Amino acid sequence: MMNGLLLVLGFGLLIKGADFLVKGASVVASRFGISALTIGLTVVSFGTSMPELLVSLTSGLQNKSDLAIANVIGSNIANVLLVLGVAAVIRPLAVKNSTLLSEIPFSLSAALLLGFLANAHLFSTRSELSISHLDGVILLFFFLLFMFYVYKTSSTEGSKVRQIAAAGTVTRSLVFIVSGALGLYFGSQWVVDGAAGLARDWGINDALIGLTIVAVGTSSPELVASAVAAYRNQTDIAVGNVVGSNIFNLLWVLGFTSTVVELPFEVVSNTDLVVVIGSSTMLILALVFSRNNTLTRSHGVVFVGLYLVYLAYVVARG
Fold it and tell me: Mind listing the domains of the chain with CATH numbers?
């Protein structure tokens, strides 16, 4: 009972902490003349990926590598199949050509890169699979390339930003940032402790908890943001939020975590990584063969259905 309560309270702190961090950072960034596009692709994606980062880092430091990796992989699966599926059911999602041709393929490439690094022994004499410190550096290098792409894209867009005149607004935003960071820190601790406790109570492994309960919980910011964006007919934001978050999860979250602590990688996780790759490929194909690069309601229903099938498979496997 206490572990379940700890998990729920932790999720609440994670979601609210990410919300506060995004709000505060967005105001501060716009105050200093940073474009709206850059804020969306960096601050918002970073903020919604903070729950995954804190949970994975905390899990890695506590020698719960299964939970650290499953959290990211499960979150990326939930982002594409559940989050985009629900958003598409609410309103068909029209996707820009740049997103279809650049960001989604980059996300797919990041998943392929992670799969190669986790299974390769090119840079190690050990036989065990792992995401090593060097692998983390490589992931972070490609993350920096993505950031450079974002910078070049935002410079081309030349988006205008609203300047915040009142100094008090910036001060309040700094309070939001600090409060959000504290919420993320304590929330991640509670989620990891609660998830580990539930795994012990139910006699199941950390990976199953990470792929299901923790993954859906840490994807809650993306789910809420994309659902609201779809309802308000801001479909490019709904899709961009998910794609950007997936790139951040694979390259930034696992990259940073594995530079701090090496993460042993179980062979069974390759199946889940294949689902990440398959779901991203499905997204590309659905958009390519649809009219006007649109993810329709029918696609959304199929995506959500496939996610439920995947959850059933994970539970049966676990």
Answer: 2-317 (1.20.1420.30)
Nearest to 23 by CA among 147, 149, 143, 183: 183
Q: Are 212 and 227 in contact (CB under 8 A)?
A: no
pLDDT in tens, 193-221: 787 777 778 777 778 887 887 887 777 77
Tokens 């867009």: give the residue.
157
- Both tokens of 54, joined, read 């804190």
User: What is the tens place of the pLDDT at every residue in 25-48?
Assistant: 767 666 766 655 566 566 667 776
Type of residue found at 131: I
Q: What is the pTM of this model?
A: 0.81
- The tokens for 91 are 């309103």
Q: What are the residues whose beta carbons fall under 8 Å from the beta carbon of 111, sequence distance 6 or more?
A: 76, 250, 273, 276, 277, 280
Q: How far apart are CA 111 and CA 255, in angstroms?
A: 12
